[in-house]
Design brief:
single chain, alpha+beta, Arc Repressor Mutant, subunit A, Beta-Lactamase, Enolase-like, domain 1, 3 domains, five-stranded antiparallel beta sheet
Length: 355
């Protein structure tokens, strides 16, 4: 083994041991824990070289070493590469979490998209033992299979949309004046005629081309499309209690809570941290927002890249467990939504009805 390869093996083991113990790691502890055939002096020299390269540091002169963000970044990328190159999949890496597949089956049994996103975020948090999140697909980019208007007040209606992938969303809308039930029903038919098989983003152009039938209730349809004109992506968080470990370790958690408290800012942070926009991404300490230098993000896209999910935690999180959990849930959601259009088409009056 070449000296550089040996150093990286030692670095990998140091990060792994530190993650378990949360204490500075000495050369003697490494030799004892991993049974190296190299002597302690060789390990000490390699640790000194890794320190010069910025992968580890000493909290104080006589202590062992602690990984830096660069060291954790190396370790996370090694874990990701190892999972891929050895053909290991998330199910195997989640050994000991026997509830995984039972939990996924329960997750996908939920009738509404809102339930699915909430449960998926909670499931990621449970598997990774860190904060889990879902950024839902923008429903405006999905083809509409069904549109239903439900009266909820004198001037309030609720629009229920069933999209490709059997994703369903509910939007509360306030109209400028009251409409009769008959008018609401006719507006619903006109709206579905405009939307079915198309996206919300195409709706306005399509409406202009549909003729008198669409224009008869155009003011109602206009109000509804106006309410849906923005990007309809939402953030679902779970497992905030896991951040207590970072608080106990002395991390300044306030910058992260400021980001979490602003849905738009959190969404931008996650999306900007995914330059490739595809597959699993790991970021450690290098975020576009200041104050997050001690935190790590593991994320993946799902459903044709339209949604993003992941876990956020201190940079000493268990990367093997976090990467595996994120991959597992991303696969499950992608498989579920990919299968949706077929079942929606074959069962128009069954489970595919908007909730």
């Amino acid at each position: 083994m070449k000296p550089r390869e040996r150093r990286y093996v030692i670095l990998r083991d140091l990060v792994e041991l530190y993650t378990k113990t949360r204490k500075p790691v000495s050369s003697t502890e490494l030799v004892k824990e991993y049974g190296y055939r190299w002597c302690s002096a060789t390990v000490r020299n390699d640790l000194a070289a890794l320190e010069r390269e910025g992968y580890i540091y000493k909290p104080f002169p006589s202590s062992g070493r602690v990984p830096t963000a660069k060291g954790f970044r190396f370790y996370a990328r090694w874990i990701l590469k190892s999972l891929r190159s050895h053909g290991e999949v998330a199910e195997r890496a989640l050994e000991g979490l026997g509830r995984a597949f039972e939990g996924i089956a329960s997750l996908l049994a939920h009738p509404t998209t809102l339930d699915i996103w909430k449960e998926a975020a909670a499931f990621i948090a449970s598997l990774a033992s860190q904060m889990g999140f879902i950024i839902s697909p923008d429903i405006g980019s999905l083809r509409i299979a069904r549109a239903v208007l439900v009266r909820t007040g004198e001037q309030e209606v609720s629009l229920h949309l069933l999209t490709e992938g059997e994703l369903s969303e509910k939007f509360p809308i306030r109209l400028p004046q009251r409409v009769s039930d008959a008018e609401l029903k006719e507006a619903e038919e006109a709206l579905e005629d405009i939307l079915k098989g198309r996206t919300l983003k195409d709706a306005r152009t399509i409406m202009e081309e549909r003729g008198l039938r669409a224009r008869k209730f155009s003011w109602i349809v206009e109000e509804i499309l106006k309410a849906l004109g923005r990007e309809n992506r939402k953030v679902y968080l779970s497992g905030l209690e896991y951040l207590s470990e970072a608080i106990r370790a002395g991390c300044d958690i306030k910058p992260l809570f400021r980001v979490i408290g602003d849905e738009r800012l959190f969404m931008e942070l996650v999306l900007e941290s995914r330059p490739e926009h595809k597959g699993i991404e790991v970021r450690v300490g290098d975020f576009p927002v200041k104050g997050l230098e001690e935190f790590a993000l593991v994320s993946a896209d799902f459903y044709k890249g339209m949604g993003v999910l992941g876990t956020f935690g201190p940079m000493w999180l268990d990367y093997s467990k976090a990467i595996s959990a994120v991959e597992l849930i991303a696969r499950a959601l992608s498989a579920y939504t990919a299968a949706g259009p077929t079942s929606a088409a074959s069962s128009p009056s069954g489970q595919s009805q908007p909730q």
